[in-house]
Amino acid sequence: MRGPSRSCTTTASLIVSRQQGIDPAAVGRLWRRLGQRGPREGPLGTRPALLCRLGQPTLVGTAEGTGFDLMKPRRMMWLVTGAGGMLGGEMLTRLAADGHEVVGLGHAELDVTSTTAVETALRRHRPDVVVNCAAYTKVDEAEASESEAFEINALGPRNLAIACASIGGRLVHVSTDYVFAGDAVTPYDEDCEPAPRTAYGRSKLAGEQAVGELLPHRSAVVRTAWLYGERGRSFVRTLIRLERERETLDVVADQRGQPTWTVDLAGRLVDIGRRSTATGIFHVTNSGDTTCWDLAREVFRLLGADPERICPTATDRFPAIAKRPAYSVLGHRRCAEVGLAPLRDWQSALRVAFPRLLRAEETEGHQT
Ligand SMILES: NC(=O)c1ccc[n+]([C@@H]2O[C@H](COP(=O)([O-])OP(=O)(O)OC[C@H]3O[C@@H](n4cnc5c(N)ncnc54)[C@H](OP(=O)(O)O)[C@@H]3O)[C@@H](O)[C@H]2O)c1
Q1: Given ligand 1 and candidates 109, 114, 130, 137, which is best to mutate, with the most ligand atoms within 8 Å of its CB?
Q2: Which of 46, 97, 106, 121 would staple 54 via disulfide (CB 3.0–4.6 Å)?
């Protein structure tokens, strides 16, 4: 156990220190200043075994006896924010399938920009782990609405970090490759200097920093990229739809990244959430890398369509409001360090995902 830390400059750092058995008087004063009764004492107590899927409570199983450090001696409770989104929905599915207790809160159930609402929700549900999938993800619109993007992508995780500190919970916060400049030629290591080129990227970086500063010993920031899944909009699902509508498609061949299936990412977020030693920044993407053009050709192949219908083009032919990174490949050093094997390669993941993506496109294709 470490001694009192004079270097703790933030309120939440002090709260974390208290949870490590440090300087209770200072934390008590701090809590009184914050208008709280004081830091919670003792065990977390009993909680309802409910899966509130977007406000619809459903009884699900629990995850007892799986042998991970955070599982002992009591069962583990998860809370997912932004549960109505592409990744948030997949997280709920994954956690429920694994038999965890999980509360999923969509935007309507919990607005992460509200300090009070976040604190109330966390005190009510007392999760062991919060997975923050809530985000402002409209990359182009963020250029004109930077303050809104900051509210959701920076203030939101800040609120969650403070509330997690107050209940002794852990926070897994999802971030993005857009924190980098995108002009590298080798994979970005977790330690590479961020240099966002967009308002969205700046807001996400601010969120990462808030989490890292306020909850350093109980948080993981997971950067990912190029997501696709059964829910929501994605480049892959758009390609499936456009194959039916267009004879040929122009797709940029000068943007390189790692297509990542939300199912694989959700599994890895659970792995990280369950390891109390997994703190700091992690990059999580499917292995390998490719260009948008090659990805589109692969999607057409899987559809049984002629990949030659995908014509290579350059980014500067499609001027976007927000600059897209040319190179978004992320290295996976930190996962390896905590004993997590690389996710499967992107082609294998896409092949397995494909029947599900097709089904989703058939039933709700109008949404993409
Ligand atoms: N999609 C990608 O390719 C990609 C790539 C890299 C990183 N990421 C990161 O991955 C995470 C998940 O992204 P996603 O693709 O699942 O995004 P998404 O589908 O847009 O989901 C985000 C969810 O957050 C909700 N939300 C927005 N404002 C909120 C608020 N104030 N409080 C609570 N919820 C709020 C949204 O609800 P409404 O729709 O009702 O506003 C939406 O359901 C994000 O952190 C994103 O930055 C995504």
Answers
A1: 137
A2: 106
